Every structure is written in C-alpha cells, then in structure tokens.
Amino acid sequence: MDDLRNKYIEAIAAAADEAALEELRVQAVGKKGEVSLKMRELGKMTPEERQVAGPALNALKNEITSALAAKKAALADAALDARLATEWLDVTLPARNRRVGSIHPISQVTEEVTAIFADMGFAVAEGPQIETDWYNFDALNIPGHHPARAEMDTFYTHRAEGDERPPHVLRTHTSPVQIRSMEKTGAPIRIICPGRVYRADYDQTHTPMFHQIEGLALGRDVSMANLKWVLEEFFTAFFGTEVKTRFRASHFPFTEPSAEVDIQCSWEGGTVKVGEGDDWLEVLGSGMVHPKVLEAGGIDPNEYQGFAFGIGIDRLAMLKYGIPDLRAFFDSDLRWLRHYGFASLDQPTLHGGLSR
Ligand code: DAH
Fold first, then answer.
1. What mean pLDDT comes out for the span 263-275?
2. 241 and 322 both lie in a single domain
3. What's the domain count of the chain?
4. 76-85 CB contacts, 8 Å cutoff, 24+ apart
5. Could you tell which of 117, 154, 254 is best to mutate to test the pocket of ligand 1, judged by most ligand atoms within 8 Å of the CB?
6. 27 falls within a domain
7. How many Å lie between the centroid of ligand 1 and the Cα of residue 15?
8. How confident is the model at residue 356 (pLDDT cuts 50, 70, 90)?
9. Closest residue to atom 5 of ligand 1, CA basis
10. How far is the centre of ligand 1, averaged over its atoms, from the C-alpha of 175 (Å)?
11. Does 278 reside within a domain?
12. CA–CA distance, 63 with 57 (Å, rounded to integer)
C-alpha cells in the first residue's frame, strides 16, 4: 500500500496539466482504478484483516483525492499567474499625445453664414460641381456668344472623339443651383447654396477652386429693398458690428437691375478693418432675378419676382479672421491649419456668438 501511495502522490506532484491529473484520478480511484480494485478485495479478507486494511484503504483514497484537488488548484493558480504576467497593464502611464484636428476657416465661415441666413428663413440647397453648360450658362441668360463665358476662364471636361454633345464644365459659380432649385420646388422660395466653384486663375487673390454662397428669394412682391435689408442684416451679424453697405449699379446677365455691394472698411495700419473708416471693399454681386432666368427655372415672371446674390466665402473668411493670402487656404500646411483652424466643438450659433 505504501508503494501505491508513493507512486500516485509523486505522479500527481509531477502532473503538468489538468488532463494528466484526470488520467491519474481514473487510474487510482476511478471505478476500475487500482485503489478501487483493492477495496473490492476487502470482501475476501478475514474480519481481522479487513479491520486493518479497510480504514487504511479509505485513508489512502482520501489522501489521493485531496492531493488531486490541491494539484488542480495549484495548476489553475499558475495559469492565472501566467496570464496576469502577460496581460499586465500600467494604468499609471500618461496618455499618449494625440494630434487634434481643427475645423478649416472655410468650413467655419460656411457654417456661420448658414446659421445667419437660416435665422432669416433661408434653407440650404446644393448642386453638382460638374455642371452642364446649360445650367452653368444658358439658363442664366449667358448664351454661347456672350463675353461672360470667355471671361469666366472655364474648365471644360473632355469628350470622347465623335461625341458631339457640348462638354460639361466645372461650375464657375453657384448660380446654376438657382435654376436647379427653382425646378425642384418652384416659387415662393428662399434658399442659400454654399459650395465649391472653379476658374482657371491663380495669384494672391485667386485660386482655381474657391467657394461661394448663392442666395435666392422669390415671392409675389420680393423687392430690391428686401435684398438691401437682408444683406445689411447679414453683414452686421457676420462681423458682429454695424456694417455700412454701398450698392453700385453693375451688370450681370442673370439679374436686372444688378448691383455690386461694397462694405465699409478701413486700411489703417496696413490691415483691413470692417465696419469702420471711409474705404469700401467689394464683397458680392446681386440683383433682381432676370425674367429669362425665372423662365428657365420654370417660373412665370408675371407672377413671381425676387432677388439673388453671390458672395465669395473665402473673401469673407479672409476679412473676418485677418488672413492675408488666399492661396494658404489650400496649401494644407499643418502649422497654418493649427493657427487659423477652429476647435471642432466651436459650432457657430447665433445665440452662442458666431466665433470664438
Ligand atoms: N455668379 C456671379 C459670379 O460668380 C455672382 C453673382 C452676381 C451671383 C449676381 C448672383 C447675382 O446671384 O445676382 O461672379
């Protein structure tokens, strides 16, 4: 019995895993295990022999069973220790520095302008950046021979050889969205259309891609006076100070009459300041929508009339945030973006103040 005991106690101590332990359990104390077989032999013994062997075998069985349990617990502890050692995590380590992105001034200004016009009841409309020449020109009363077509430095798309359709263009202004919106909702209508526009031009104040916001308000009696009020209201909200405007008679094919609008500014100290001084800065084109344009949009000019305007967003951003060179907007220089960018939670709202 001592041999049996030593054999199993040693084997249990040496077992490498739970499977080995289970095998030993079956061999020793399973139904047909060595200890169990020995217990069965008790029946053939004399009562005296049995009195000695019975308790001894029971003790042996108990000893092996508890050795198995203890080893099992030890193996589990070791496994847990090994896992804890590999999954170790130092929660006191300082967090890794992550670069925080910023909102581009163009996006910020677009949101600001949108918030102001939304407050005056204007909805936002959008159109494609690749336009047909009909939407970009003809529908806006700019026929093929019109000098405005040549002046716009238009980018034309390529047509396959033999394809006689007129080429598409990269829209040169946001005005085609006027037509698309009239077609879609008819009159009355009050919308602004922010977006990218393209012209083949490049210097300190021109980039081949830039941004505009188109405005359109049509009704039965919408007038030039309404245009003037809306624009003055807009500039005052946008610049956060009362801004005088100057309407200069001008010409656009899609409006009659047409006006270019200047805002009051000063150039003192070499920088522009809006809302003070005796100088004027041109910021937008506008006018009463031409009857031919209304017709192109499917609206009866005898029933409806209204105003339209187009503002350069980039120019507004430069003026408001003192950014001197337009080209820097599109250089993607991280230092510039960090300097002029806005925090992502600085959402412009009228009640929260438009800018930081
Ligand atoms: N589309 C013109 C441009 O890009 C701007 C403009 C002028 C828009 C007068 C208008 C308008 O809606 O009425 O230069």
1. 84
2. yes
3. 2
4. none
5. 254
6. yes
7. 87
8. very low
9. 310
10. 6
11. yes
12. 10
For the chain, how many residues are written?
356
State whether the beta carbon of 136 lies less than 6 angstroms from ligand 1: no
In a domain, 97, yes or no: no
- Nearest protein CA to atom 2 of ligand 1, as residue: 310
CA–centroid distance, residue 143 to ligand 1 (Å): 16
214 lines ligand 1 (CB under 6 A): yes
Tokens encoding 275: 């809302």
Could you give the CA distance from residue 34 to residue 26 in angstroms, rounded to a whole number? 9
Same domain, 148 and 229: yes
Whether ligand 1 lies within 6 angstroms of the CB of 287 is answered as yes
- Shared domain for 110 and 73, answered yes or no, is no
Given this model, what pLDDT does residue 355 score? 56
Least confident of 103-107, 252-256, 324-328: 324-328
The neighbouring-strand residues paired with 281 are 263
Query: What beta strand segments (E) does the chain contain?
Result: 123-124, 130-131, 169-170, 189-198, 209-219, 245-252, 255-266, 273-274, 279-289, 305-312
- In this structure, which amino acid lies at residue 63? E
Q: Which two tokens stand for residue 198?
A: 């393209």
What residue owns the CA closest to ligand 1's atom 3?
173
* Structural domain includes residue 346: no
Distance CA 316, CA 174 (A): 16
Residues of the domain holding 169: 105-340
Judgement on whether residues 80 and 20 belong to the same structural domain of the protein: yes
Whose CA is closest to atom 12 on ligand 1?
309
